[in-house]
Amino acid sequence: MQNVRIPQRVDPTKLAQKRSSYDGVFAKDHLARLADVVVEIERDIEVKVDFDVDLQGIIAIVGNASTAVKCVCERCGKPFTIDLAADFKYTPDQKKIESFGISTEYDFVDTDEFGEIDLLALVEDELMLALPLVSKHDKCPDFEGYWVSGKIEEEAKTNPFAVLKNLKK
Ligand SMILES: [Zn+2]
Description:
By secondary structure, the chain is α+β, with helices and mostly antiparallel strands. It contains seven helices and eight strands, in the order βαβαββββαββαααα. It has two domains: 9-137, no CATH class; 139-169, no CATH class. Helix 6 (150-158) crosses helix 7 (160-168). Mean pLDDT is 88; it is low at 147-155. The protein binds zinc ion (ZN).
């Protein structure tokens, strides 16, 4: 496995003109916001990203990112691993697209006064969006009854508190 570090801030205009690509990693200890909401980021963030100029002259930042994080199951309280992956498609050319008056498949990213974007922050945003709303085992062992009993499951659909009531009995 290659282990090339990707720069945090990049100039997408220059990179797009050269049709550059990155294939490498962000060190996991640089993602403080993601680290805050999980128990642990288990490995460095693998990132592939291509910079290009599309047929309409729009700068395209297209790629994907993946890692694994440890979360606590909200049902049984035990830690487990979630594989996180996100595809993204950004452009800094928001004004240009808006002047075309067309709908777009791109998300917008702002450049700073040096024409650079924070690629690390962009990737971190995408991975945080990829987190499940509720972290729990697919089939949590402590709640087996919930999954095998059609009756409880049925009640849970109509009233989420019915499950809790049944457990108290
Ligand atoms: Zn669980």
